Amino acid sequence: MPIDCRHYVRDLALAATLIVGAVGWNSAADAQSLNALANMKTPSFVLDPSWPKPLPAPVTNGVAHTWVQGEVAGNCVDLQDNVYTFNRGWEVGVTFNGVLQGNQSGAIVGQDATASAIPSPPVVVFDSDGNTIAGFGNPTLIQGPNPNFGYPTYLPHGAHGCFVDYQGYLWVGGNGDGVVQKYNPQAAAQAGATATYVTQIGTHAQCDGPLNPANPGFTYASCGDANSFNTSHTLLNEPADIAVDPNPDPVTHTSGSVYIADGYGNHRVVVYTTSDGGKSYQYNRQWGTGCGHVGQDCPAGTFGQTGGGHPHCIVLGNDGLVYVCDRPNSRIQVFDKSCGGPSVSNSQPICQPRRIINIGLNAGVTPPPSDGNNAFRLADPAAAAAIQLAGTRGDDMDFWPNIDALASKSPTSQHVIVDVDLGNDNTWLMDKATATVFGALGVCGIIPCPGHNGGHFAFGHTAATDSKGNLYIAETITGRRIQKFTPVMGNGH
């Protein structure tokens, strides 16, 4: 086992801050803050350079070993404004304690791999001040058929999206696996490296897809591009993101439906519902299929399957609609929750979206010159227009202002869309109603990208919003960090 985190969390104050069982949100102070945010039609943000605080350095045999996160593939926020990160450092890059970890991406190398540093737990939780309050997740690996790669024995392979639901449970998925898992954060934090999920959808190390004839004896060979419309009710294929709805489902009329961007392999959205309060989940419906063209040639309701194509994010708006990132096609597709229901058969899987938001391709997208209030707003409109037409975009999105864990019950105006553009290494700020970009975080178009300084991005991957209007942007590949941006009150109009 490459790392045992159980003794790391004994000194972390987590019992009072990780809460499971929350059924709502009620704070007069936070309501006032949200009302103030709602008046900021074009918000500005500044980097909080003090967030997060340095990671823990637990002492073993008299030597402090600092945690090092790998690619921070997913980030999400709970009702207490704690920030969860799901990272790949434990899985990749080096031989640690005699176990060869797969070097799939984001290897912990160089100075990070010295005797005084160790991979952090797969899940690291910060409070709103940036203090580490928990770390958990089973990091054990088995060796795959290729000696250069290892595979997790328990957690999803290829850590990816995460979501904290309205009851306080953490959901994680993997883009190299066929599962999403649901954890009780308080129990998981106490267990550390032996944390176990409370519910799983899908089968670990097995995907809904064709077997690889070159490697027929290993179950992970079935994970990858299905190149067809797969209809399994029990298997997933490299799910990228998860969202849980606290409102009654439009088909079953029960709360707690799980929407999955199933994703890198299946190019579909699949919905699982529960009739026992979240103890178990059953397949209910699905929509979407792959489209082999990258760009706007893909028909509405399909998702690109080439060029790294897939539905990459899924977000539930309080307008009752489902927002899905179609990453290679540079767009966000907006669907009814009831898509894929009785009116859509498996032979006709394409559900027509209510709306398509094209990222960087619509009129009026050029951000204005800097007004001096936002150091990260693009200052060169011509350069901004040029880079918005390059690379992949539509990687992830969130609403602003928003209370993510409340999903469709968030009592916010949600008038801004925050769009993370992995290809251009900017995060766009868009007016939701008009789909026009009015600003951005990042500096691409001003200096060469990607950027590794504060407020720059290197492979920005996911976004999350807390109840105070702060934005958290996580970076993968060479970025391997998470940054916090705070709203500048009084500068929006």
Q: Total number of helical segments?
A: 3
The coarse overall form would be: globular
Q: Over the alpha carbons, how many angstroms does the gyration radius reach?
A: 21 Å
SS class: mainly beta
Q: Can you give the mean pLDDT?
A: 81
Outline the low-pLDDT stretches. Answer: 1-11, 361-390
Distance between the termini: 54 Å
Could you please describe the fold and organization of this structure?
This protein has 493 residues and is mainly beta. It is built from 3 helices and 34 strands. It has helices at 28-38, 185-191, 381-387; strands spanning 45-47, 59-60, 63-64, 66-68, 72-77, 83-87, 95-96, 99-100, 117-119, 123-126, 132-136, 141-143, 150-152, 159-164, 170-174, 179-183, 199-202, 239-245, 257-262, 268-273, 282-287, 290-291, 303-304, 311-316, 321-326, 331-336, 355-358, 396-400, 416-421, 426-431, 436-441, 460-465, 471-475, 481-487. A 4-stranded antiparallel β-sheet has the order 1-34-33-32, with no helix packed on it. Strand 5 and strand 6 (83-87) form a beta hairpin. The longest helix has 11 residues, at 28-38. Mean pLDDT is 81; it is low at 1-11 and 361-390.
SSE order and pairing:
Layout: H1 28-38, E1 45-47, E2 59-60, E3 63-64, E4 66-68, E5 72-77, E6 83-87, E7 95-96, E8 99-100, E9 117-119, E10 123-126, E11 132-136, E12 141-143, E13 150-152, E14 159-164, E15 170-174, E16 179-183, H2 185-191, E17 199-202, E18 239-245, E19 257-262, E20 268-273, E21 282-287, E22 290-291, E23 303-304, E24 311-316, E25 321-326, E26 331-336, E27 355-358, H3 381-387, E28 396-400, E29 416-421, E30 426-431, E31 436-441, E32 460-465, E33 471-475, E34 481-487
Parallel strand pairs: 4-9, 22-23
Antiparallel strand pairs: 1-34, 2-3, 5-6, 6-10, 7-8, 10-11, 12-13, 14-15, 15-16, 16-17, 18-19, 19-20, 20-21, 24-25, 25-26, 26-27, 28-29, 29-30, 30-31, 32-33, 33-34
